[in-house]
Specification:
alpha+beta
Length: 174
């Protein structure tokens, strides 16, 4: 059953509700803490932190954060899709999918070229994500190759990059 909800960039007053969404969706505080750390980061883009609202309440959240794909001395900027969460009682109703699609559109409007996600292999390909190995992009830790995906927002931008995703320190501990 689909629900009717709206989306928009987060505001200061949404922060407590966003933390609650992540804590309830993941059953732990790590992702909520990550969101707070990313907000404090120098590369935080407020228009890439979106909330889903149902009857005026925050029921979902997604954040995209700039990362680099590093190959030797060359670094190509990308975005990390991390994290995305929906309250358990609103999951499987299209909320996460809409947040992802609208976040990708916002990233395009802001002229970002690509997005990297470490996530479920059956979920992210529906949005156009492909295995990052297609572009010789690797995770910074072993064993994540099957879950690392990339999406070009502008065709050909990842064609010659290759390298390792370099997540900023804010991602440590998740």
């Amino acid at each position: 059953m689909d629900i009717h909800f709206t989306t928009r960039p987060e505001t200061e007053k949404d922060r407590r509700a966003i933390a609650e969404v992540h804590a309830r969706a993941f059953g732990r505080e790590h992702e909520a803490q990550l969101v707070e750390r990313l907000r404090q980061g120098l590369r935080f883009v407020p228009d890439l932190s979106l909330v889903a609202l149902y009857r005026g309440e925050v029921i979902g959240h997604i954040l995209f954060y700039p990362v680099d794909v590093v190959n030797g001395e060359k670094a190509v900027e990308s975005l990390a899709l991390a994290p995305v969460a929906v309250l358990p009682e609103h999951q499987r109703k299209g909320v996460g999918s809409i947040l992802i699609r609208q976040g990708l559109e916002a990233a395009k409007r802001l002229r970002f070229n690509s997005v990297i996600v470490l996530g479920h292999p059956e979920y992210y390909p529906r949005f156009g994500f492909q295995p990052a190995s297609r572009w010789k992009i690797k995770a910074p830790f072993a064993g994540a190759e099957q879950a690392l995906f990339a999406l070009e927002l502008r065709e050909g931008v990842l064609g010659h990059s290759g390298g390792t995703v370099q997540y900023p320190g804010e991602f440590e501990g998740v």
